[in-house]
Specification:
Layout lengths: L18 H14 L3 E8 L2 E7 L8 E3 L4 H14 L9 H4 L10 H5 L2 H5 L10 H5 L4 H7 L14 H15 L3 H13 L5 E2 L13 E4 H12 L3 E2 L2 E2 L3 H8 L26 E2 L5 E5 L3 E6 L4 E7 L4 H12 L12 H12 L13 H6 L1 H4 L1 E4 L7 E8 L3 E8 L22 E7 L3 E5 L7 E11 L2 E8 L5 E9 L2 E8 L11 E5 L1
Parallel strand pairs: 15-17
Antiparallel strand pairs: 1-2, 1-11, 3-5, 4-5, 6-7, 8-9, 9-10, 10-11, 12-13, 12-21, 13-14, 14-15, 16-17, 17-18, 18-19, 19-20, 20-21
């Protein structure tokens, strides 16, 4: 199904929000956060502001990470509405063939609602322990359940995976296929992609990739209590249950009333301050629904401090919202449009006095460098410093370490031959990268001479939060390569690699 039309757009003041308040939010995000990739703000169902930090684009899909969970919850709600199950069904009754012969009392008491509200009774997240198995659901049911279900909150992505498997079992199709005609098509989400486990089940707790406006549509559906263009898509009772406080997630050891991670948890949604709730994912992927303000904020990021994004929303956006239309402010509206049009992630900057000298000597650094066994599996790097861009060639071999922390284990690219990237001098150039070894990714690269002998490049995988910063230091026939990553589930800095000129 092709999307028939974009969401309607309008001036902020016409929807009762100040352009200057949004401008303050965008400026603070640009100056204080490292880094927001894009945002979209809806008020009364109208897009009043949107912006993307180049090379990210407003129409680009993006990894959602755990924001995927809110879509999984929605699938469960739709399955409940169709009479396929109840939130009070026990898990072992729904998976009798996978349950242990002698279920513990706590496992026997575990219900669908406990998976939805992260109150399964497990003492810790089950994800790592079950994802190693060919049958993760069976592995989940075989784990000890230390607490009575409903009494102990633990954020548990393994539970979300089991919910996905449950929908697939009951509907006879993958979670994403189930949502297609029931949700995605009805609210205009096109091209959603969901990664899956080798057993054939969509991950549920992560793995969905959609765009900023898709997330905004999803939030608007919840804001409208399940109605889209006058038609009921999701039961109002489900919206109320999913977005209300089902679990107490306050930290008894370190309670923090100001933290948006201690306001309560619903059905795969987080409660926030200010009467709001949200779906969110690692490194700052957000769908924030603000019923009291009739507003939705969607945002994609690549940062470690997720609370900082929410703080900016509360501090900058909420004070600018009014209950009625505001007087037109064309000057502020034009300034806002101009500012967001110029947003860009910052490329490496040439150090004072080094750029010209380094470029003049670039010819001596051109050529190919070979590497022995290393954590990245890097075999060759080639440099051709052109007048407008570096033409970088590289090869990753099949002999490489696993579990290196770069967005999962590196796998060698299929096919043979060198890969190439163009790296703009102080500006982003789009391309396709295989450098993390997981296959082709849409990427953008920019670089600069940050010292007489060091060329630094940034590689932004445009559909992910990840930015690699790679410093190449030339010392005679040797090349030293240092890699760091902006955010990661594992390490963000990696051992240096040394190559020798061929």
């Amino acid at each position: 199904m092709a999307r028939k039309a974009r969401l309607p757009r309008g001036e902020p003041e016409s929807q009762g929000i100040s352009s200057r308040a949004i401008l303050g939010f965008a400026r603070a995000a640009d100056e204080e956060l490292d880094s927001l990739h894009g945002f979209m703000l809806l008020r009364h169902g109208i897009v009043v502001a949107e912006g993307a930090w180049k090379p990210f684009r407003l129409d680009s899909p993006h990894m959602l990470f755990s924001l995927s969970k809110s879509f999984t919850s929605t699938a469960v709600g739709l399955a409940v509405a169709e009479g396929r199950l109840s939130v009070d069904d026990t898990l072992i009754s729904l998976f009798p063939d996978k349950a242990p012969a002698h279920a513990s009392p706590n496992l026997a008491a575990m219900k669908v609602r406990h998976l939805l509200s992260m109150n399964t009774g497990h003492g810790q997240d089950t994800t790592d322990r079950i994802m190693r198995h060919r049958d993760p659901v069976r592995a989940f049911l075989e784990l000890p359940v230390e607490h009575e279900p409903g009494t102990h909150f633990v954020y548990n992505s393994g539970a979300s995976f089991v919910l996905s498997a449950l929908v697939q079992r009951l509907a006879g199709k993958r979670l994403s296929s189930f949502l297609g005609p029931r949700l995605f098509d009805r609210i205009g989400i096109v091209g959603a992609r969901w990664d899956r486990h080798p057993c054939g089940v969509d991950f549920g707790g992560w793995g969905l990739k959609v765009g900023l406006e898709d997330v905004a549509r999803f939030g608007q559906l919840y804001l409208q209590k399940g109605v889209w263009k006058g038609e009921r898509v999701l039961p109002e009772a489900w919206v109320a249950a999913a977005s209300s406080r089902q679990s107490d997630n306050a930290d008894p050891a370190k309670p923090d009333p100001a933290s948006d991670w201690q306001q309560g948890y619903g059905y795969q949604f987080w409660r926030c301050g200010h009467g709001a709730y949200r779906g969110d994912g690692a490194f700052g992927q957000f769908c924030v629904v603000m019923p009291e303000e009739d507003a939705v904020l969607s945002a994609f990021s690549g940062l470690s401090d997720m609370q900082a994004v929410l703080n900016l929303a509360w501090e900058r956006l909420l004070p600018g919202m009014s209950g009625s239309a505001l007087p037109a402010d064309p000057e502020a509206a034009a300034e806002l449009r101009g500012f967001v049009a110029g947003l860009a992630l910052r490329p490496p900057k040439a150090s004072s006095g080094s750029g010209g000298a380094a470029l003049g000597a670039a010819g001596s650094r051109a050529g190919k460098y070979r590497f022995e066994g290393n954590w990245a599996g890097l075999d060759m790097l080639g440099f051709d410093f052109g007048p407008e861009a570096l033409e970088l060639s590289y090869r990753i071999t099949r002999k490489q370490a696993k579990g290196n922390g770069l967005d999962g284990p590196l796998e060698p690219p299929k096919g043979s031959g060198n890969r190439k990237l163009r790296v703009g001098y102080g500006e982003w150039i789009d391309g396709v990268s295989w450098m993390d070894g997981s296959g082709p990714r849409k990427a953008a690269c920019a670089g600069a001479w940050t010292g007489p002998d060091t060329f630094e490049m940034k590689l932004f995988n445009r559909e992910t939060p990840f930015v690699l910063t790679i410093a190449y230091t030339f010392d005679g026939a040797e090349l030293r390569v240092e890699v760091r990553q902006n955010v990661n589930m594992g390490p963000t800095e990696f051992p240096a690699i040394t190559g020798i000129a061929r």
